[in-house]
Amino acid sequence: MGRAAPADDARVDPPAAALRASVLIGAGTLATNQGDMADTIALYDEALALYEAAGDRAGRVSTLNGLGWMLFEQSAYARAAAILEEALTEADDLGQAGEAAEALLNLGHIALAHGDHAHASQRYETALGRYQALGNRRGESYGLLNLGWVRVAQRTDREAVALFRAALAIMQSLSDIWGHASCLEGLAVATLSGAPDRARAAVVICAAAAMARAVIGAAPSEVTRAQIEAALARARTALGTDSYVAAWGEGQAIDLEQATALAATT
Question: Do the beta carbons of residue 192 and residue 202 sit within 8 Å?
Fold first, then answer.
């Protein structure tokens, strides 16, 4: 893929630099969809330099958030955290509450990945409050969802279930398939932790969620994948391999709404 000229070439023409940066962001989105995260990060780095050359602080904040997320997905936590802290500071300075909330949410992911549940909870709760103040229902749902995963990690399963159910109601209203599937997985894992006798239902629900996500070509979050896999391993042990495989096959044959109905009775 061809690269843009160095940012120095565009310093005297801020609109041109900003335009070229937006083109690079678009190319980065394409690279992400093709699974080329290394190329995506390189494109975002170039876009960031161009926004800086253009003096476009808003574009810079948005790019910092995107870059921070990409680095997090690559487990480059130290650089991701530094970039997201910069995005948070800059967004607060500009009064960009939505961008600040996004940075807080992603910083929560890093804290959770490190096993720092208290810090993750604080970041998610702050992001949730900001999204609610903005009336941003999608952001609110993701704040609730991620707090649910913190509570799962903390073994406070009843609180986790309440958070996942609240997030699920919003996700359904927004037709957010990825979020809907993630809420169902959270409910299944929390239910399995609190009631091992419900292992079969948990497996059916997780299988339905995995199937829905496969249809849209999206993977679960790296932070929650380990919790899901550990819960499913416990379920396999509890059920035995044959029953586990049968339950998984049953889940793959139902849709998210049927899985949601099952989760409501589990």
Answer: yes
203-228: b (≥16 Cβ within 10 Å) or e: bbbbbbbbbbbeeeeeebbebbeebb
pLDDT of residue 107: 98
Rounded-to-integer distance, Cα 78 and Cα 102, Å:
18
Domain residue limits, the chain: 172-266
User: What sections of 135-176 are H helices per DSSP?
Assistant: 137-153, 157-174
Q: Which of 250, 231, 247, 145 is nearest to 192 (CA)?
A: 231
CA angle 164, 141, 85 (to 5 degrees): 115
pLDDT at 18: 84
Return the pLDDT at 83.
Answer: 97
Q: How distant is the alpha carbon of residue 70 from its chain centre?
A: 11
Residue with tokens 């497996």: 203
Query: How does DSSP classify residue 1?
Result: -
For 88-111, the three-class secondary structure string (H helix, E strand, C coil) is HHHHHHHCCHHHHHHHHHHHHHHH
Strands in the chain per DSSP E: none
Is 50 in contact with 21 (CB distance < 8 Å)?
Answer: yes
Nearest-10 Cα torsion for 212, 213, 214, 220: -150
Question: What is the pTM (predicted TM-score) of this model?
Answer: 0.88
Residues in contact with 189: Cβ distance below 8 Å, sequence separation at least 6, in sequence order: 152, 202, 206, 227, 228, 231
Q: Which residues contact 161 (CB under 8 A, 6 or more apart)?
A: 148, 187, 190, 191, 194
Confidence (pLDDT) at 135: 98
User: Could you state, in chain order, the average pLDDT of each consecutive group of 10 residues for the chain (266 residues)?
Assistant: 43 77 84 75 91 92 93 93 98 97 97 96 98 98 97 93 97 96 95 77 96 88 88 92 96 97 90
